Amino acid sequence: MGIDVAIESPPNAATQGSAVGLSVERVDARDKLAGKAEFTGDLRPPFMLFGAVLRSPFAHALIESIDASEAEQMEGVVAVLTAKDLDDLDAYYGHALKDRPILAIDKVRFVGEPVAVVAATTWAIAEEALSYIDVRYQELKVAASLDAALAPDAPLIHDGPQRPGFAHGLGTLPDREGNICYQYGFARGDLDEVFASAAEVVEGEYEFPAVYQYSMETHTTIAHHKGNEIILWSSCQHPFLVRQEVSELFGVSLDNVQVIVPFLGGGFGSKSYTKMEPIAVAISRKAGRPVRILNRVDESMVTTRRHNMKCRMRTAAAADGQLLAREVDMWFDTGAYADNGPRVTATAGDAGPGPYRWTAVEVRAKCVYTNTGPSGSYRAFGATHVQWIGESQIDELARRLGIDRVEIRRKNLLLRGEEVRPGAKPMDADLIGDLDKAAAAIDWDAPRPEGRGVGVSVGLLAAGAHPVSTATVRLGPDGGVSVLVGTTEVGQGARTVMAQIAAEVLTIPSSRVNVQGADTKYTPYDRSTGASRSTTVAGKAVEEAALDVLEALLETASLTLGVAKEELWVADGTIGHAEQSLTFEELVQRRFGYSGGELIGHGRIQPRGGSGSFAEGPVFWEICIAGAEVEVDFETGVVTVLRTSSVADVGRAINPQLVERQDEGGTLQGIGNALFEEMRYTDNGLLLNDTLLDYRIPSFEDLPAVMSCAIVENEDGPGPFGAKGCGEGVLAAIPAAIVNAVADAGVHMKVLPLTPERVWRQIQQQKIN
Amino acid sequence: MTKEIATTINGATFRGEVPDNELLLDFLRERVGLIGVRQSCEVQVCGVCTVLVDGAPISSCCYLACDIDGRTVETIEGVTDTDFFQEISDAFVRHAAVQCGFCTPGIVLTAKALVGTTDLSTEQAIREAMSGNLCRCTGYRSIIDALSEVFDKYPQVDD
User: Fold this and answer.
1) What ipTM was assigned to the predicted interfaces of this complex?
2) Which residues in B lie closer than 8 A to residue A31 (C-beta atoms)?
3) CB contact, 8 Å: B127 with chain A?
4) Which of A420, A526, A560, A588 is the most buried (most CB within 10 A)?
5) What strands, in cross-sheet order, belong to the sheet with B2-9?
6) Do residue B68 and residue B6 come from a single domain?
7) For residue range B8-46, what is the model confidence (pLDDT) as tens digits?
8) Is the whole model's pTM more than 0.95, yes or no?
């Protein structure tokens, strides 16, 4: 059941690893400290021009005319791109739904939608030229919220035929219905009967806000379209998917599209799939020179965000606390273009029931177009949206039934091997053991003063995306090792972890292993950097490639020493038998003669069967477990997070320190999502808080006094050395734990974020009731 | 309009004309080629564009290039030979306080300016003093731990 990514056993020789499980120094830390690490915006290919994007001031309007002639004549302006320059292309893209034009064609659908692009010799000239482009619009009725887009008289935001994208991974896509572009759902058991017979039912309506990922490096792309060849330097998480999309859009073969990924200044999902690359390629095609597009923060905010959503949920339990049934309806605001909305919607659907045993369950999740900027991936999408809702209902049931809130979970949590949903991988972790750790870390049973509360939450996130990764490991005649792998270093430490995996197999220090960024021309295929998949899937490919090199070394050693491979030992970069031994350097030289040559190993991870649909997965279930202790000021509504705990159930921690850092970073993002991050739109689709002045993210002063992260290593993951991914689950779990802690303190919230005003109003409301 | 300026950037003298509306951030990145100065929020909130002018941290995104006339500018590239940089680097490496690294140079420069000028004796004081620099990756815990270690080596001042 599920996708099996197991590989062949390692060679028989006894090897002694030297790197996995150690918190070795990050390979990129010192360059980053010194400001030497290069990000896309630091690069200057010869003759590069600076691009600037003219964006729509209207949320929904027809474009009547565009006159760029004045801008084109400005000194320093090399090219101005408008939709008419795209006439020779099928200019629509989108990995899930092919609904997005490179530039607005005839119609704009959100404030900030690109309408024209200028390439000039300086950025200042390019930006100035934008004001000389004359665009005439005819405004249309706007649907800038879920309610407006779902209303019977809502304007249709897309009205042409729906076209599936090349990488949606969702099986057969349902047809669009009004502004609903995708629906996902499932039903098991007789819902009505079970609800009718339940001792307690909790139900409610909930809202989750639109959130900005804010990777500090904004989306940045440099493109050079050379006719039959395209070179892209881009801050993208999925270079191979970008390559495929750009190849199709511009009719240039895959091998002639080169996507090079320098260091990324954060991603968190905001740089997944294709973002500014098509625009950059299109303007370069016209200008005939490399062109850079660097988003400003307000531009990145309308390039992608986290979906705001509405949810209606009810949950039933028996008098003894046994959970019986859950019904979930969710509506996700995907903005004007689908981006990753369908996948977000499906993942939320899967997360809806939570990690429990049900007699009946029904989930309906809908992905809705609105006239706002597109919504896509953000760390732990889907799970973050719904876990706090489901978990707050579990808490409420426990309160009403007089059962301890940890106890009700222990009673109902899925055990290892139990079915999560039909056709999917069964539960692959010890949830009860993990929950106990999270609860103990916040002193669950300790008495607390008035105004304080504690909460825990448990959830699952389908992780690993599609398990296709390949890698190459090269061992040179000086014993140095290079790993070629398409994983993107977004800050998570992928290059360090990949070095450790290769080093472990080859029994050498990880400092002898060099890992560069992705360059699709030279690094082998890797599907994506997301869904917590890099260590597990790409890491497995690196392990396999390193084993391939080791096998070749063993062959040479066996021939040289005249001993069967099985009788050799491997340690410290040396292979031997009894007292005789040869270093890797000597073995490479023996193999090729003279002093040259290198050994090259290949690793290939692929599903052993299936259609490629994610429904057959996931590669593993990422565990979303956390605890929180809060203090609520009943005079002001201010919520202070005093203490958090999280559990990184990683199978095996390749680098424990990096695992902790993932959970710590995710915890702070969870605090931001829960307490104050919210993109606010007017009814006309204008984003009100489009700067960091009024869109606040957590700062040094928002760190809880105590933040603990437990690492659980059951060596039960499908990745190298029993590892599985981490770093996202915590973001789903923390807001849920905070909401539950606030309820424990006495305030029952159904709308996030928990701003002081919102909490204060709820306090007053509860007083009246 | 341009203005004639004379300044010292990372120990080197610079004389020349700069447009009077050019931001220090753009001047340092585009004309001088100092990529350790980063651009992000552009509204003086995130701190990634921090440089030291006469030793004080400023946001180069909201500072005119011509205003460095007669002053001394230090960017991350200009402090990497100092003992302080070695100490803070070792501490950041030990605590794995670097992730994507986009914010890191700005944090190092702010920390450098704080030493000897600001009360850093408690964690709360460090948090307040550092609150002009954002980091979206680390969750701050490791940065505070690393900074505390470094600050402990220097004499404390009263605020």
Assistant:
1) 0.98
2) 101
3) yes
4) A526
5) B12-19, B2-9, B72-74, B50-53, B56-59
6) yes
7) 999 999 999 999 999 999 999 999 999 999 999 999 999
8) yes
